[in-house]
Design brief:
The longest helix is centred in the N-terminal third of the chain and has 19 residues. The strands form 4 sheets. The protein has a 6-stranded parallel sheet with strand order 2-1-3-4-5-10, with helices on both faces. A two-stranded parallel sheet has the order 6-9. The protein contains 9 helices and 12 strands. Helices cover 39% and strands 16% of the residues. By secondary structure, it is an alpha/beta fold. It has a domain of 207 residues: Rossmann fold, CATH 3.40.50. The model has no long low-confidence stretch (mean pLDDT 96). It binds NADP nicotinamide-adenine-dinucleotide phosphate (NAP).
């Protein structure tokens, strides 16, 4: 049975990968842009779910500007918590299943080893706090919700670390990157591929099925931002890779604090879904190949 997916978001990294990959799956995807549905209007978002009557809802729109979030917590709450909660509310028990994305920034990063889903969240910035409220709102409003926490999302489009590093290298500036924050890079393509591959299972599963609840999804392998930058340059530029100078988080003051080690453990995903995310370097190689095809990484 073709799964009818209603997706909020068209321009974000994950949203675009969902749209790009959907034709390879037995799904009919309708994606709503910010013009179709601004997340500052929770009632409209909820009405649109009723109007489209899908089998599965995917929330791929979010406020993701981590530093700017510190200036406008009410707006971030509305976009990242209130509206996802309103959408989940209309999905409820008998409506569509729902997939929502969250973040490693729900953790403070002080645990010392990778976080599992049962670990107590403790956000240290506004973005993390509001994403945590969003998780709670979605999970409490809809028993058929899958919330995927992810980290360090990158792709060949939008604004992300891969593109920023390649732009800096192209400009010939010295490259100084934080070497004391650790995590797991994640390709938007892999997140989207996972959701699409599980769409029919999610649409058919009943409340109480283990596929619902909170899960971590990240590509395999932990690195620092400096290690990630070096991987990007090695992949894209080979022997022309610039030297990356290590700096500490304290050397790069930012409005929002970041967790030093928000690394996500993906064991639950592997146990319940039988899916093991591939190494981040393999996902990165595909992103760089896409950028080279587009002429954006030479
Ligand atoms: N990026 C990361 O490193 C990262 C890490 C952990 C978790 N996540 C989570 O993963 C999910 C997907 O992230 P992503 O990287 O794909 O995000 P992204 O590329 O930053 O895209 C965010 C999307 O949300 C839309 N949006 C923002 N404000 C909106 C509003 N008021 N109403 C409607 N749409 C709005 C944007 O539309 P416009 O193009 O019109 O602005 C854009 O399409 C999010 O839930 C995010 O919190 C991301």
């Amino acid at each position: 049975m073709t799964v009818r997916i209603l997706q909020f978001g068209t321009t974000g990294q994950v949203a675009r990968e969902m749209i790009r990959q959907a034709p390879a799956h037995d799904v009919a995807l309708t994606a709503l842009s910010r013009e179709d549905c601004d997340f500052e209007d929770p009632e409209k978002a909820a009405r649109l779910v009723n109007h489209h009557h899908p089998d599965l809802v995917v929330i791929a729109a979010a406020y993701t500007a981590v530093d700017k979030a510190e200036e406008e917590p009410e707006r971030v709450y509305e976009i990242n918590a209130e509206t996802p909660g309103a959408i989940a509310g209309v999905c409820g028990l008998n409506g569509p299943a729902i997939v929502h994305f969250s973040t490693d920034y729900v953790f403070d990063g002080d645990k010392g080893f990778p976080y599992v889903e049962e670990d107590r969240p403790h956000p240290i910035n506004v973005y993390g706090e509001m994403k945590l409220s969003g998780e709670n709102n979605v999970l409490s409003a809809c028993p058929r919700a899958l919330v995927l926490r992810t980290s360090w999302v990158v792709s060949s489009h939008g604004r992300n670390f891969v593109k920023t590093m390649l732009r800096l290298a192209g400009e010939g500036n010295p490259i100084r990157v934080v070497d004391d924050q650790f995590g797991r890079p994640t390709a938007a393509a892999d997140l989207a591929g996972f959701v699409l591959s599980q769409a029919s299972r999610l649409a058919a599963a009943k409340a109480g099925d283990p596929v619902f609840g909170l899960f971590h999804f990240a590509n395999d392998g932990e690195t620092s931002w400096k290690g990630f930058a070096e991987g990007i340059f090695a992949e894209a530029l080979g022997e022309r890779a610039p030297k990356v100078e290590a700096i500490a988080t304290a050397d790069r003051p930012a409005p929002a604090r970041r967790p030093l080690r928000g690394t996500l453990d993906t064991g639950k995903l592997e146990r319940v879904f039988g899916v093991t995310p591939r190494p981040w370097r393999a996902a990165l190689a595909e992103i760089v190949a896409d950028l080279k095809t587009e002429g954006a990484a030479a």
